[in-house]
Amino acid sequence: MMVGSIADGALLTISSRTLPRTLALLTFLSLGPAACQPQARRLLLLDLTLSDPVVVSGTAEPWRDAGYTVEYRQFYPHLTRTDAARYRVLIFLLGREPEAPSDALTAGDVALLNEWVRAGGIVVLGYDADGEGYLDRWTANRWLEFEGAGIAIGDRVLEDTTVRPPPPTTTGRPQPWAAARAVGDEPLGSVYDPFPLDRNHVLTVRDGSQLLAVTGQHTFERTPRGLAARPGAGVAAATRIGDGLVVVISRHALGALGPQFRPTTTPILQPDALSRTHDFLTALARWTRRPAEWAHVPPAAHRVPLTLAPAPTPTPVEPAAPPLAPPRGTATIGLPLPNEAKLARATSLPDWLRQQGIRALWAPLLVTRGGGGRFPRSSAALDSMVALLDVGAFNLVAGDADPEGTDSVHARWEERDAVRRAWTDAVNRLQPTSVAWIPVFDASRARWTPGDSSRGPRGEPVPAPCAFDSTLWAAAFAPAYTALGRLAAEQRTLVIALGLDLTGVRAGEGLEFCDVAWRRGLARLARSGPLDALPPAARYPALRDAGLLPLYYRALTDELAERVAAVRDRVLKQRRDLYFAFRLPQLPSDWFTLGLLRGFALPDRPILIFSPEMKTRQALAAYRGRDLNLVHAVALPPASLRGRDLPALRRLLFDESDGFWLAPEEGPGVRLPGDSVGRLLRRLVR
Fold first, then answer.
1. Could you please report the per-residue DSSP string of 81-104?
2. Which residues contact 327 (CB under 8 A, 6 or more apart)?
3. Which of 250, 288, 392, 477 could potentially form a cystine with 678 if both were Cys, beta carbons 3.0 to 4.6 Å apart?
């Protein structure tokens, strides 16, 4: 027991049990009137990947539910000096460099993070936990060490062997579930059943009481020497710094409730488990509003000098000083996005889609065999596919049709012969059925003479073609769609749509600063002069700091949409009633994919989207608010088909989405699922 004095001279007796909470309460009271200002309930969300609002809306949801007003500044993802006066809480979603293009933490960000927390602010650091973002994890770790936070972010993704076989996901990427650690009283003092928390790395802490959530006892990470056990690995941690608070958690965990720029890892048969994830994330958000509860985590200690050089990548940490305010032209928007009932469903649906939904089998016409060669499916394999289509009550079959193999300029005669034979065999077997065909162009297999490569925001070359490389369009996209258009014109009763597969295409990850894109963007912006001569490494910061990024990406989107619309219109001259379809690794989140969708969009018919994402209703409504009329089919792993789970699957596939596409595991010599899967599918769609 101890005795303390207060302002009026009275004595206050405080037990050792209540000391931490009392100290936190006194700290809160010492903030004075500022703690009661509207600032205390305003939250700023910054994302160094410049994600579309659709894919960070789910991140904001639990914070909104906890009483915060969330504002997202997409095109200036750095701190300014005026931010601390407007916001109490900062969620900082870190970048993907050097593994993928993105912005990155600057020296100015680090300086303002220190000022933010020591003035009583709250910082939530959301690091990338999917094999990318090493630079920002390194910078964040240096800052945490400087502050004496006692938290360090590891560099490898956590995995789990608790269940074998693992619970099926739409992406084949099951992750360890998390369990909350009881911290004080409400809201984090409750006991939560384990819940999915997406991708995470291990967090090392100085004191176990800093942990807010941990994984199970069978967690491990892959190292160069093999598998390293990580039982009870920390995945969310906090510490007090000055009068403020720092929480460290992965950006994927923060966004687990909605679509992200990475496909979901939630088990498809347990979507209701996300309600427990929501409960935990909302409790975490509420906890940040209660300084008295922070006292249950230890304060920072043992500060060390801050060192940001040498950086672990060829490009150093940007030494930019923090500006006073964001540049003009970089507005904030409120999150989560509003859910408008009138946009909940697609419009202009054909009768077959409205009545039956999408029930598609994804099966490429040519298969890869030993040696890497691609060959048409055998007659027996085609007969097996047709039998599965019948038993499983499918209404669509889609897959790579190798249209680039028909190009007499780029393909050898034996390739052209193989593709024509595959098309003929497919037509002969599908015509007697009631199944429609969507032949697909796999953009990752496009053949062209490389020109300008894509470039990221630091001027770094990206292993993908420039989005406006003329040879890419003239030698790949245009010939492929011309060939597919001829096929559709010849097979009017069989081919219902033409598809584009983008699952293997990175295309600058939505951050494009190649020479052609730069010239096109500036021309549309009517900007000339000093910007024309900027080298690639100076282009992104020049636009960002001038507030021109929103206009630049809008210009690129418009330019791409016009180029794509020209391809679309040539196809529609061959056949007017065609639909267009996309296979995507996740929902659209960058200007490149959105530009492609806009180019293929038509006012009188929807675009068909095939992706692994499960929770899409609100996101699709947001796209429709931008005049993108999309319908969505979710990937269905064969392992998820079990009789007792069919009612839950039916709700997921036809209530949350507009149908499904069966996703056999891909690879050389892959076989289609057997009759038992087909019979379960027929029960599913009754």
1. TTHHHH-SEEEEE---TTTS----
2. 76, 544, 545, 546, 547
3. 392
